[in-house]
Automatic annotation (TrEMBL):
Annotated transmembrane regions: 241-265, 271-289, 301-321, 425-444
Catalysed reaction equations from the record: chloride(in) = chloride(out)
Name listed for the protein in its UniProt record: Gamma-aminobutyric acid receptor subunit pi
SUPFAM superfamilies attached to this UniProt entry: Neurotransmitter-gated ion-channel transmembrane pore, Nicotinic receptor ligand binding domain-like
Top-level lineage group: Eukaryota
Name of the encoding gene: GABRP_1
């Protein structure tokens, strides 16, 4: 403002000289060292970066697109994934309209002079903006007032995983973009081109997963302070099971088959069969501990691999118990034969002497009665409990004794060598059936 003294006393005339304004630079109209860009004169006159476009009127339409550069790690123990993304946001600010049909890429530091959306990543644990060699941000301004704002972000996002079918599982993870402070009355989020707004995810090569499919959603987040616009990228990751088959399933299956070798070894080879059984049990235990060490923080889950290892451990332990049963039955059989060859003959001789004495000193009736009592004492398996001379409590004891001998007879192995014979067929057959049900359930249900 320039002021001059008027001819009349006490009158001063002031003339206002306009000044040109640019993005962050104000220059004199007639200054020779003007630093404003061509076409940006008066661009920021009256601009307030603290007020959104169309303030007090319609909401701002913000269109977004994503490029997934990489997904570096997917952690089952922490239940999250780390991704590097290129986030691009477009909106129109009528205060930044200028003449011409060109677009200008501005210095990223000028973003401090403009209004930008307050977009944030929901369920993000850690995030940072890359700043080598400068902050990885882009500002591009179009003549119709459209602004393109791009960022390169690395973020670690939580992903709730269901590990009940691990390692034959398929996980569904999300990347959610939401407005922090502006509700749906102030901003509206949209995908720029629907599912085509996301690029790069179909080209990812992950160590354990394959991207099955992905799709975009537009939603709202209802909070206590209002309803906020939200964009969702949802993608499904299928785990590659081949690695786990070679590392866990094949070794555990071979250990089960190794335990069956003991069925072809005779019962007399105690060290050989015991060594095979104990070695396979210890090896299986080591394999189970190793498979769970990688998921130490998710031990509360009963996973598919735990079920299979438990099945294999049961078959291996069953083979060891089978030998114990067969060997015990064999030893009992030999112990039962030995007394019959020694003491049994002596008992028979004593009975004969007693019978001869009774014949000489007793009547025929007494002789028959003593013979019947002797047969009752010797034959403990089939005792006649209907004798009239027996008392009531003796009859009850006799009946209970016969029942116990009959039940024990059902579980008595008459030929211990048959145990190995049947085990050679039953163990592989049951193991194959269990595998059929296991793989059918976890692959198709």
């Amino acid at each position: 403002t320039r002021c001059a003294q008027h001819a009349r006393p006490h009158v001063t005339v002031c003339i206002c000289v306009p000044r040109r304004c640019s993005l962050g630079h104000i220059s004199d109209l007639h200054g020779s060292d003007a630093t404003s860009l061509p076409g940006f004169e008066n661009l920021t006159m009256g601009y307030n970066k603290y007020l959104r476009p169309y303030f007090g009127g319609e909401p701002v339409q913000i269109a977004m697109s994503l490029d997934i550069a990489s997904i570096s790690s997917i952690s089952e123990s922490d239940m999250d994934y780390t991704a590097t993304i290129y986030l691009r946001q477009r909106w129109t600010d009528p205060r930044l309209v200028f003449h011409g049909n060109k677009s200008f890429t501005l210095d990223a530091r000028l973003v401090e002079l403009l209004w930008v959306p307050d977009t944030y990543i929901v369920e993000s644990k850690r995030s940072f903006l890359h700043d080598v060699t400068v902050g990885n941000r882009l500002i591009r301004l179009f003549s119709n007032g459209t602004i393109l704002y791009a960022l390169r972000i690395t973020t670690t996002v939580a992903c709730n995983m269901d590990l009940s079918k691990y390692p034959m599982d398929t996980q569904t993870c999300r990347l959610q973009l939401e407005s922090w402070g502006y509700d749906e009355n102030d901003v509206i989020f949209t995908w720029l081109r629907g599912n085509d707004s996301v690029h790069g995810i179909e080209k990812l090569r992950l160590s354990q997963y394959t991207v099955e499919r992905y799709y975009t959603l537009v939603s709202k987040s209802q909070q206590e302070t209002g309803s906020y616009p939200q964009l969702i990228l949802q993608f499904e990751l299928r785990r590659n099971v081949l690695y786990f088959i070679l590392e866990t399933y094949v070794p555990s299956t071979l250990l089960v088959m190794l335990s069956w070798v003991s069925f072809w070894i005779t019962l007399d080879s105690v060290p050989a069969r015991t060594c095979i059984g104990v070695t396979t049990v210890l090896s299986m235990t080591t394999l189970m501990i190793g498979s769970r060490s990688s998921l130490s923080k998710t031990n509360c889950f009963i996973k598919a691999i735990d079920v299979y290892l438990g099945i294999c451990f049961s078959f291996i332990f069953g083979a060891l118990v089978e030998y114990a049963v067969a060997h015990y039955s064999s030893s009992q059989k030999y112990a039962a034969k030995a007394p019959q060859e020694g003491p049994a003959n002596e008992l028979t001789k004593e009975m004969e002497e007693v019978n001869i004495t009774n014949i000489l000193n007793s009547s025929n009736t007494g002789y028959e009665r003593k013979i019947s009592f002797t047969s009752i004492e010797i034959s403990s398996d089939n005792v006649n409990c209907s004798d009239l001379t027996m008392k009531t409590h003796e009859k009850i004891k006799c009946v209970l004794r016969n029942k116990m001998h009959r039940i024990i007879g059902y579980f008595t192995i008459q030929n211990p060598s048959n145990v190995d014979h049947y085990s050679k067929l039953l163990f592989p057959l049951f193991f194959m059936l269990v595998n059929v049900f296991y793989w059918a359930y976890y692959l198709y249900f």
